[in-house]
Amino acid sequence: MYVYDEHDRQIAAERVEQFRDQTRRALAGELSEDEFLPLRLQNGLYVQRLAPMLRIAVPYGMLRSVQLRRLARITRDYDKGYAHFTTRQNVQLNWPAVEDVPDILAELAEVEMHANQTSGNCIRNTTTDQFSGVQDDEIADPRPYCEIIRQWSTFHPEFAFLPRKFKVAVNASEHSDRAAIQVHDIGLQLVRDDSGELGFRVHVGGGLGRTPMVGPVIRDYLPEKDLLTYLEAVLRVYNRYGRRDNKFKARIKILVKALTPEGFAEKVEAEWAHIKDSPTELTREAIAKFQTYFTEPAYEPVPEATESLAARRFENRAFDQWIAHNVDTHKKPGYAIVTLTVKKTGVPPGDVTDRQLEQIADLADEYSFGEARVTHQQNAVLADVRQDRLYELWQAIAPMDFGTANLNKLTDVICCPGGDYCSLANAKSIPVAEAIQRKFDDLDFLYDIGDIDLNISGCMNACGHHHVGHIGVLGVDKKGQEFYQISLGGSSHHDAAIGKILGPSFARDDMPDVIKSIVDVYVSNRTQEEAFLDTYRRIGIDPFKERVYA
Amino acid sequence: MPEVITRNGGILEDNWVVVARPAEGESLDLPRDTDQPALIPADLWLAGQEHYIGRKNIGVWFDSHQEPEMLEGLVNELDVIAVNFPKFADGRGYSIARLLRERLGYRHELRAIGDVLLDQLQFMKRCGFDRFVLRADKNAEEAARCLNFFSQGYQAATDTDIPLFRRRAS
């Protein structure tokens, strides 16, 4: 994992003092609310429905146990003893006081953390696959490139006041996309060219929100050394020509659509031609240096524990289900990837208490080389667990509420904070998630219906990524009443697609039954091997409409 | 007399005036006093360049939607170029400044005008501005501190060719 050197430490310390100064001037009235707004947003500080909200960056989702413990302490000392894992691998506090934020930042800086650019019209935290570095089918570890992008984008002097927010995601696997790169402003897919040289396929202009779009490819192959100069060219074209007259048309996707992907790509190439050989071009030595931070931990030479695990699984059905659903294959023999689900029914998806943060830290120290990861599905991952300790780990997490064996199932809901917390929301989202989780409380039925992404957003801003849920739910406001619109057929994976709206929206109380009807249509139409999305794509939306609006 | 801030935070007296774009059909309203230094819209300077080149007290200003490329090959005929920030959150001026410096090779004074506040000064400096006309209600005494919140940056920009990853390697 990346470790700060003296440069990073100095920049982080100067940032804390800068924000302390800005906060002081804001509270003293020297900065107007309008002037302070982008400054505090670029530090992740929103003023929300009930209290300020502070979004803390977790670069590409990686956390050390010392950082988890510090987060736990901060939630106790400055907040109400819990935090929230976001859909972009960050952590949010819901109740800090504005005047405390500089002190919180100072505490974060001590453990090499910050809240830089977690909001505002600037380049946000770069996200990636939570299985980076441990899955067996990745082209290369994406994290060194994420860190390269993090440093380049931090306080970039030219791109601090873009037309709108800007999100970059990097994916490394050929077969899966857990980072949803095609719905990002820039999505980078690691690839190798014919001679085996590393590079990226570049998608630009994907996104959710009011105008959901799958990002088109504007370059099939970008050599790795050109990563930053090319990003700089894309950002410069966007900064100069992106719309600033209408907030709802200011994302880069609108510019890409207006110019066409080919027209946009031409503009980028023309800009890039001027700067591709500038000193911002990466050197082999620099890339190698970043890679040294993401080397393998000290794996022990242990054999696959297939047989002993099989015996345990045979004896214990709950353990068997947990292994089947929440444990993934590791590239190293004898190791496994464990996802701790933070989706217990009755608790807002992604919410963790201070105690749970410390428990994750303890588990990371005991089982996974002191590191954990936050996923864009709002769960936590222990990436390097010995297979022969899985049973012990499973027993340990049972009382901690991390063991719900529902990873990627219907009840593993992606959900924004919604109207309970967020001032932008049109409707509550958390109670809808909970009602659906309660309706589908039979694990055997959940396993039978297989992997289904259920994504819930409380408004058009789509923080719950509803457009790319296999089943998406969007809260809408109709004359002061909360209603919910359903879309079907979305995907955030390699087969990325924007869901289609089913029809008129529903009252909150009807939602569990509506979801049940949708699942029933799938169950009665599927062939043996079809997952939900396959059946939907084969039979189309009409059979679902007929049943739900019957 | 109005003040202008230097890239080190020094405060100088300043007598340049910004001449607004004339309304449709009107002509440019240059100061009567021909010794009065004035900044005129860049496209109008270009249109009348044979008339303006060599006049030390005429400079140009760009608005944020304008393209600095229009002055390619001519920038160093000017002693002062200004870039207007109509609102401080309009970030196009940063790209305009870098293009003037790094692409068009402009070597003389580059000033930020308009909604210029304290917390954006260091970004502006890094993009090549070396004079700042702070919005009138802001305290120029604070500029020196705000120009130097950070002792270094991660990226190459106009102020340095060498990104941090190259400085670390050496």
Task: Note down, in words, how this protein is organized.
The complex is a heterodimer of chains A (550) and B (170). With 550 residues, chain A is an alpha+beta fold. Chain A has four domains: 6-110, Alpha-Beta Complex (Sulfite Reductase Hemoprotein, domain 2); 135-293, Sulfite Reductase Hemoprotein, domain 1, CATH 3.30.413; 306-400, Sulfite Reductase Hemoprotein, domain 2; 414-548, 2-Layer Sandwich (Sulfite Reductase Hemoprotein, domain 1), CATH 3.30.413. Chain A is built from 18 helices and 21 strands. In chain A, the strands form four sheets. In chain A, strands 16, 17, 18, 19, 20 and 21 form a six-stranded mixed beta sheet that branches. In chain A, strands 1-2-5-4-13 form a five-stranded antiparallel beta sheet. In chain A, strands 3-14-15-12-11 form a five-stranded antiparallel beta sheet. In chain A, α1 packs antiparallel against α2 (33-41) and α7 (252-259) crosses α8. The radius of gyration of chain A is 23 Å and the shape is globular. The termini of chain A are far apart. Chain B has a single domain, classed as Rossmann fold. Chain B contains six helices and eight strands, in the order ββββααββαβαβαα. Chain B is globular and about 55 Å long. The mean pLDDT of chain B is 95. The A-B interface holds A 5, 7, 10-11, 14-15, 17-18, 21-22, 30-31, 35, 38-39, 121, 148, 151-152, 154-163, 228, 236, 239-240, 244, 274, 278-280, 282-283, 285-286, 289-290 and B 88-92, 94-95, 98, 103, 117, 119-120, 122-124, 126-127, 139, 145, 149-157, 161-169.
